[in-house]
Amino acid sequence: MEVSEVLPLSELGIFTSFTRMTLTLLIFVVSILVSFAVSSDMFMQVGTSVQLNPVYPGQDFEVFLWLFHNNTIGKYYKDISKLKLYSPYEGRVEFNEEAHSLILKNLQRNDTGFYEAKTIGETNKVVVKYRLTVLDPVETPVLTTTPHMQSSEACNMTLTCRGHDYSVISSCYNEICDEMELTLPGSVTLTLTVSGRVVNCNLSNPVGWKATDIEITPLTQHCTSHGKVHHPGSSNSAHLGPFKGSMLVIILSVLCITK
């Protein structure tokens, strides 16, 4: 008959204590993860509106606040269902009492910064954080071509893509062009790409883009299939010179014989 081993009470106590400590630590970690504010990055264009949505805060609070760089935008008093807005946000803000979301209208570049929502009650808690960046719309880029008209380089050209006081330059030969990309301050990107015979100059940022296209086909009229220069004004008459001379000799010979 097998005899089960019975642990001493002292060891059982240590095991039980360790289990309790583990569970307590696990609950503590989970509570931190649940209460930790969700952070998000947002990009918006000047003149538009943005809606900031908090994580559901529950009902255990007295006051709900939206802040910008720790300056209060508005306070919502739950017990009396009243919203107090602070200057300069009066007339620019809509607050949803059920979702506790905030709509900020007519965004300007000085609205760029950190926003957060807080609850005040028995315990104060940050429920969400946003980092908002407000950007101007990009301008339409300018794309120019400069053909090299010297006799030895008539099949070459230079493409220049300009925008926001910056430019990228590409060299082309017989419709083969280098593609370029430049990253500018403020998350702006200037790119020059080629698809077939169409060259695209694109200026973009996280809230929009604009582009200019040109077709490079007309420039190929200066090139032969071997990349040599062909002058449209020249004719084939020079190649007929010996033929014309032979005809003249024959005509003169006939005239002499007839005489």
From TrEMBL:
Q: Which UniProt keywords apply?
A: Glycoprotein, Membrane, Signal, Transmembrane, Transmembrane helix
Q: Does the keyword Membrane apply?
A: yes
What Gene3D superfamilies has UniProt attached to this entry?
Immunoglobulins (2.60.40.10)
Q: Its GO CC terms?
A: membrane
Tell where it localizes: Membrane
User: What is the protein named?
Assistant: Immunoglobulin subtype domain-containing protein
Query: Where are the membrane-spanning stretches?
Result: 12-38
Where mainly located?
Answer: membrane
